[in-house]
Amino acid sequence: xxxxxxxxxxxxxxxxxxxxxxxxxxxxxxxxxxxxxxxxxxxxxxxxxxxxxxxxxxxxxxxxxxxxxxxxxxxxxxxxxxxxxxxxxxxxxxxxxxxxxxxxxxxxxxxxxxxxxxxxxxxxxxxxxxxxxxxxxxxxxxxxxxxxxxxxxxxxxxxxxxxxxxxxxxxxxxxxxxxxxxxxxx
Length: 186
Known about the structure:
The chain is an alpha/beta fold. The protein has five helices and eight strands, in the order E-E-E-H-E-E-H-E-E-H-H-H-E. The strands form three sheets. Strands 3-2-5-4 form a four-stranded mixed β-sheet.
């Protein structure tokens, strides 16, 4: 991971909840500068930190926000949406049969042809090779058992898992609000 002291491309702002925690770690909660300025003018956010870059109009000048916090707290306790991305995140972007991170797919633990449903409790991340190898068989029939039993994660669990995957580029003004083990690069 590289920590930037210059402006990141597009000048995004890190968006924090009202408790000063990021709304999301993976993907990192970032807004384009245009959305950030709009939220500032609508009174929805407080500016916490700014870039050295300013924007200008004929009668106005403002430093571009690099970190903003929402004025209203957004509860993070709602159940996470069942999406391919969230299943991959729950499973650490690794095949639950062999551990590979290549060519990831969904696998129905109990195959759909056997009445298996597309739910948190019946879907695991599988590489294409394992998914094809298991086919329409049950884990017992195929001799392939997931490393972890599939289950619905909480939003908190997904956020914690997301912290394991820091983005490649972070602006130095964001570091006080992100909780990764980060080594600064020169």
